[in-house]
Amino acid sequence: MAQPIDYASPRAEKRRPRERSAAAAIGALFSLPVTIVAMFLAIASGGAGHGDYVIARALFPIPILATLLDHGTIDLPILALALLQFPLYGVIIGWSLATSRRAAIIGTASLLSLHAAAAALCFCGFLPNFS
Q1: pLDDT tens digits, 1-35
Q2: How many CB atoms lie within 10 A of CB 52?
Q3: Using an 8 Å Cβ cutoff, are 61 and 121 in contact?
Q4: pTM for this model (two decimals)
Q5: Terminus of the chain with fewer CB atoms < 10 Å: N or C?
Q6: What is the domain partition of the chain in residue ranges?
Q7: Residue 1: what pLDDT?
Q8: Could you please report the per-residue DSSP string of 64-90?
Q9: 111 vs 107: CA distance, rounded Å
Q10: Is residue 64 within 8 Å of residue 53, measured between CB atoms?
Q11: Residue 30: which H helix or E strand, with range?
């Protein structure tokens, strides 16, 4: 009787949690320059309170929607949420890429959908203070 071959293809093998954590950290690091540029563009779009916030609504829709909880003002918690948005995206995408191809597709598509839905709310007149 022949012994079964003890072989698992690299694709079938699950990544170790340590590798996924490293990929998540790399994703966060890659998102830091994006965050800096996006924050600069959003602040420039705001024009010291006299702008139209178009770029801020497009790049940071979730923090802009969070201003509804604070009577339409952008304060420290909102800025912290904006600073964490892209690094969190990087963590989710890095983690899912290290997990599997299916997880990467689902994770990225979910983030894009969430971001697009929040941006649509920002541009549909849902926020009267950000015209």
Answers
A1: 666 665 555 554 555 778 888 888 999 999 999 99
A2: 12
A3: yes
A4: 0.78
A5: N
A6: 17-123
A7: 61
A8: HHHGGGGTT---HHHHHHHHHHHHHHH
A9: 6
A10: yes
A11: helix 17-46
